[in-house]
User: Fold this.
Amino acid sequence: MVRLITVVEKNEDFEKFLEQLRETGCNYEVIIEDGEVTKLYVRIPDNGDWSDIRYGRILGSKVVCYKQTIYIPRVVNGKFIYNYNGKKDKPVE
Assistant:
């Protein structure tokens, strides 16, 4: 069963994941729709190596450059998953 992370109930694994992102110098943007976290955009400082991005964007200016990766944080069969495989999950039950 696939279940999105909600803003009402805390998910410790999701909170730890966000903390790890902050500690490693990443910025993130959480997209919330109808009380559920639908996407997570993570901005990683750009080191010029884009080979690790399967879905995302490269953004840059004179001041700052970064890679933006898209994640879909969710719980699948009771386990926290955050990767994005480019396919839509089956409807949430």
